[in-house]
Write a structure and sequence with these properties.
By secondary structure, the chain is α+β, with helices and mostly antiparallel strands. The chain has six helices and 17 strands.
């Protein structure tokens, strides 16, 4: 299996929930509002024997021509976006769901970004997000999924996709957050979304105020770290600037 991080860059975010670009070689974190978090926005693409899998879809940033930056990153890795066969969504917060669809600059219409792929989305997360009561979601990014024919609505607490991808509903970060294990030729890759977003968080015990259930996040990270070490998992960290894939 080949794993490729698709970095959209570093950002700071504070209680305003606005992602502000951050140049790690020039900017000073201390110049940002107190409590600002420094994070990478980093979807992953996994190339397996049978699939090209995208793990979450970033912020939906575009270049000067209105083309999704995610497309550019895929093409730089030698992958045509039409080759993506599966899009696995941990949850639908705006920094993970921005590339689910894109806006045509001329017509202002939105279109599904990966029309040849099957999207795997937690049904309860979608319903909760569509309610519009949380400012962490931008409904325009993902509302088209309700009309798209290639969506697998995951409505169980855990299950298996095509015999080698396991998912589990965790809640913890968002109410209906889910995580994935992808296993091939004896190797297990773990994507914990925002319950396990950075390497340093796996090694320390703390409760974050931005999590739906911070205590559960803390306990799950501890559990996964021990299991991962025992079973030689490869961890994929969506918000880690220094260690997106661990061990390398």
């Amino acid at each position: 299996m080949t794993v490729i991080p698709l970095s959209e860059g570093a950002f700071t975010i504070d209680k305003s929930k606005v992602f502000v670009p951050f140049d790690i070689n020039r900017d000073e974190l201390n110049s940002r509002p107190i409590g600002s978090l420094l994070v990478e926005i980093q979807p992953f693409v996994l190339i397996t024997e049978n699939d090209v899998i995208l793990l979450d879809t970033g912020l939906g940033l575009t270049d000067s021509n209105g083309k999704l930056s995610l497309y550019n990153h895929l093409e730089k890795a030698g992958i045509n976006p039409s080759q993506v066969t599966k899009v696995l969504m941990s949850h639908l917060h705006r920094d993970h769901s921005g590339g689910i669809s894109f806006e045509n600059p001329a017509s202002k219409e939105r279109f599904i970004s990966f029309p040849y792929a099957t999207y795997y989305v937690q049904k309860r997360e979608f319903s909760f997000a569509m309610d519009g009561t949380s400012s962490s979601y931008t409904i325009d990014y993902f509302s088209l999924l309700s009309e798209f024919s290639r969506v697998e609505w995951l409505d169980e607490d855990e299950g298996l996709i095509d015999g080698y991808i396991r998912y589990q509903l965790t809640g913890a970060h968002s109410k209906y957050h889910q995580v994935f294990w992808i296993e091939e030729t004896g190797k297990k890759y773990f994507f914990g979304g925002d319950v396990a977003p950075q390497l340093q968080q796996m090694k320390s015990r703390f409760i974050a105020k931005y999590d739906y259930d911070g205590k559960k996040c803390m306990e799950l990270r501890k559990q996964w770290w021990l299991e991962g070490e025992a079973e030689n998992w490869t961890f994929l960290f969506y918000h880690d600037i220094k260690s997106p894939v661990y061990p390398t």
